[in-house]
Amino acid sequence: MKTSEVREMSVADLRDRIQVEKNRLDTMRLNHAISPLEDTSEFKKVRKDIARMLTILAEKENEQK
């Protein structure tokens, strides 16, 4: 997910999306433990997306204060 797309989202949407991505990462880890994924770089991509969303969420929350 691109930064510009994340910045357009509301705070509530960001929180929901972060939770969805964290669940997706957990599912990927469990699936990888059972049978290896073909593209393990997805772990890195999802982690970076989560970090990007958390950073922008913190920025938006600080602006509201």
Helix content: over 70%
**Number of helical elements:** 3
Strand content: under 5%
Series of H and E elements: HHH
- The end-to-end span amounts to 27 Å
Largest sheet: none
Residue stretches low in confidence (pLDDT < 50, at least 5 long) are: none
> How many individual β-strands?
0
Overall geometry comes to: elongated
SSE class: mainly alpha
Radius of gyration, in angstroms, nearest whole number: 14 Å
Rounded average pLDDT: 94
Assembly category: single chain
Written account of the structure:
Helix 2 (11-34) packs antiparallel against helix 3. The chain starts with a helix and ends with a helix. It contains three helices and no strands. The protein is mostly helical and 65 residues long. It is elongated.
List the helices and strands and how they pair.
Layout: H1 3-7, H2 11-34, H3 41-64
Brief rundown of the structure:
The chain is mainly α. Helices cover 82% and strands 0% of the residues.
Short descriptors:
65 residues, mainly alpha, 82% helix
